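[09:14] KT: can someone run the structure on this one? pasting the chain below
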Amino acid sequence: MATLDVITLAEGKSALNLTGTTAHDAELPGWITAVSKRLDRLIGPVVRRTITERRDGGGDHRIYLAKHPITSITSVTEYAGTVATVLTEETNAAKPADAYLVDTYEADPTLLSNVLRRRSGGVDVSFAVGARNIEVTYVAGRFATTASCDEDAKKAAGLMLLNLWRSQEDSTGQVGEFDVPQSNFPAFAVPRAVRQMFDGEIQDPMFL
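[09:31] RB: done, structure tokens below
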């Protein structure tokens, strides 16, 4: 199992009503990882991970990080040419000359969005001009581990797994008086029910 999976093998088997067998234990982890990655693309990171990325500066006081929601910012470094300036977080009690501020995530104000602003003395200022000269390390995701993911995320992953697992199930149909083997092939990876569970949090452009 991958560390960023939203559900465990046991939870996946429960969603598929396979708790009484170990026949699929080698195959299921790959499906669970695929479902977890697809849920990440739909709503942003679920299980937390550390990301370092570089963005172009200049012309704007904002940069947009690749992943959100964000739990915390580890470091922000701005390069003007080859001169590095480490930015510190602005707070109500401190307004440094070299600072940053991250907007809150609207769906959950306890988390942060991907909008990072350059600040100086309590006001917005433009980032130094450069190509990939703003380096940011941050922790993206909602929950610390697979075990701590909430029921909404786990139920959504379970529904997605159930939908995709149909292609692995044996089934039959009737032609005249005969039973004929058939295969089920899901037409989509994200059921509508899952999308509705996360109204206001969808990030995948396909569903916006």
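[09:33] KT: thanks! The chain has a mean pLDDT of 93.
[09:34] RB: yep, looked fine to me
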